[in-house]
């Protein structure tokens, strides 16, 4: 999975959008503008270079369509692109995915229907829940040991992190109930 090391979460997002349906850079930008995941920009200076990189690595292919005066390039995902996207979606979560790159989790969930059956989605959420519970327990141990020596800002940041992890746990538990019903 050599390409994965060079792909960002934004690259995987673009692959997922194109996997859903072939589309132009402009239509991708419109989608990004109104996406509830606000971590990603719709700037042409970000979208078009990222599409070019995906095309150069053979993960997508562009085809010029439209009128001669105003052609547009419509991108489709290649088999290699589908494979790398599926590998990333199925890859195990780690602490960085939760603490430093939570937008990746949103992207994975957004495209989980492409490759996951309900039981696979449940297993993914279960592994997420286990990891978050572990992180929360570690953070509580840290808070108890370092808390008295921490400045007010450090305590506030720790409390915020604990609240975020708690909300992830509530979401995962609720999601597992929903997935089990369907």
Protein model, in words:
With 182 residues, the protein is mainly alpha-helical. It folds into 2 domains: 2-93 and 101-110, Orthogonal Bundle (Arc Repressor Mutant, subunit A), CATH 1.10.10.10; 116-181. Helix content is 70%, strand content 8%. The chain has helices at 2-6, 9-20, 25-33, 44-56, 79-90, 95-99, 102-110, 112-115, 118-146, 152-181, and strands at 23-24, 60-65, 72-77. Strands 1-3-2 form a 3-stranded antiparallel β-sheet. A hairpin with a 6-residue loop joins strand 2 (60-65) and strand 3. Helix 2 packs across helix 5 and helix 2 (9-20) runs parallel beside helix 7 (102-110). The chain is elongated and about 70 Å long.
Structure described in brief:
This protein has 182 residues and is mainly alpha-helical. Helices cover 70% and strands 8% of the residues.
The helix-and-strand class reads: mainly alpha
Fourth CATH level, the homologous superfamily of the largest domain: Winged helix-like DNA-binding domain superfamily/Winged helix DNA-binding domain
Distance between the first and last residues' Cα:
33 Å
Helix tally?
Answer: 10
Q: Could you name the CATH class of the largest domain?
A: Mainly Alpha
Q: Roughly what is the average pLDDT, rounded to an integer? A: 90
Give the helix level as a range of percent.
over 70%
What portion of residues belong to β-strands? 5-15%
Which shape, going by the Cα principal axes?
Answer: elongated
**CATH architectural arrangement of the largest domain:** Orthogonal Bundle
CATH topology of the largest domain: Arc Repressor Mutant, subunit A
Given as residue ranges, the uncertain stretches (5+ residues, pLDDT < 50) are: none
How many whole angstroms does the radius of gyration measure? Answer: 19 Å
Strand neighbour order, sheet with most strands: 1-3-2
